[in-house]
Design goal:
By secondary structure, the protein is an alpha+beta fold. The chain has 2 domains: about 90 residues, Phosphorylase Kinase, domain 1 (2-Layer Sandwich); about 200 residues, Aminoglycoside phosphotransferase (APH), C-terminal lobe (Aminoglycoside 3'-phosphotransferase, Chain: A, domain 2). The chain is about 40% helix and about 20% strand. The chain has 10 helices and 12 strands. The chain has a 5-stranded antiparallel β-sheet with strand order 1-2-3-5-4, sandwiched between helices. It has a 4-stranded antiparallel β-sheet with strand order 8-7-12-9. α3 packs across α8 and α9 packs antiparallel against α10. The longest helix is centred in the C-terminal third of the chain and has 20 residues. It is globular. The termini are far apart. The relative contact order is 0.13.
Length: about 300
């Protein structure tokens, strides 16, 4: 930590007294910076555990900001670091606010906030990909069904070639069945790809602590072009997230078969996270497995 602090002090041209880790995400750690007098610097340092992700996120933030209605944090610079375990550091705007998962002061404010969030998401979802799908660094002319099948195949082959004690024999059997059922799960699927945030959760949405008004969205995923349903599956939880999903679907319904595919997406998302970070979100994987199982032949 001291070496990272010294490196960032040199980059910024002023000494930093300390770094404070304010968030640990699967792919990165977020640090608040404090100057020599102990005052908070209006910057955050997002330090990535894998190389190349920071550059993709910087591009994604810029594009979402340019094409949408919702504010995204400004990016001020990218630092290639040698301070283990980090590979890259993104210097970005420090936003004042709290995650949307914090309850609003009254039900009417929650209704208003949901409307603001849904309108912001729909602004991105109105931008068609013109036949492209994929991630920031790997976009191709393809349909979503074929692209996602390729992604699952890569994840499956990679997992098969490594030791992953986090997965039991029953877990691997379920993943095999999920992979084999892809044609049925995507039968008659014809939704086109659009611009997506790629990591829609209540934690990636920031509101004003006093007014409960939407301030910004943060932490986008690396998937750039995908069908709308792929941007929604992370909201498949009980409580506020599920209410927000319901508000979106009232404005812009998706195919009924999304009720099954959302758990397919969640299942393989957990696998991808394990392969990239070495950490398995066991509760999320187990929940997705239970919910997907009735839909598998």
């Amino acid at each position: 930590m001291e070496q990272l602090k010294a490196e960032l002090s040199q980059v910024l041209g002023e000494p930093l007294s300390r770094l404070e880790c304010v968030s640990e995400q699967p792919y990165a750690h977020l640090f608040a910076l404090y100057d020599a007098q102990g005052h908070a610097v209006p910057l955050l340092a997002k330090s990535y555990l894998a190389a190349g992700i920071a550059r993709q996120e910087a591009y994604k933030l810029s594009m979402l900001s340019r094409e949408g209605l919702v504010r995204m944090p400004a990016v001020y610079g990218l630092v290639v670091t040698r301070q283990s375990p980090y590979k890259d550091v993104l210097l970005m705007e420090r936003l004042r606010g709290v995650p949307v998962e914090a309850p609003t002061r009254n039900p009417q404010r929650w209704e208003t906030l949901k409307e603001q969030i849904v309108e912001g998401i729909l602004a991105w979802h109105r931008i068609d990909s013109h036949g492209c799908v994929g991630t920031v660094d790997s976009t191709q002319e393809n349909n979503w069904r074929n692209w996602y099948r390729q992604r699952v195949e890569v994840l499956w082959v990679t997992l098969s070639q490594m030791q992953a004690p986090q997965f039991t024999a029953a877990d691997r059997a379920l993943l095999y069945r999920a992979r084999a059922n892809l044609p049925q799960l995507f039968q008659d699927f014809d939704d086109s790809a659009v611009l997506v945030h790629g990591n829609l959760t209540l934690r990636s949405m920031v509101k004003d602590a006093r007014s409960d008004q939407l301030l910004a969205m943060v932490n986008p995923g690396v998937v750039l072009w995908a069908p709308r349903e792929y941007d929604l599956f992370r909201l498949s939880e009980e409580g506020a997230a599920g209410e927000l999903l319901g508000a979106y679907l009232q404005r812009a319904p998706v195919a009924e078969s999304f009720v099954a595919r959302r758990w397919l997406y969640a299942l393989w998302e957990a696998v991808g996270r394990l392969l990239h970070t070495g950490q398995l979100d066991q509760p999320a994987f187990a929940h997705a497995s239970r919910q997907l199982l009735p839909w598998l032949s």
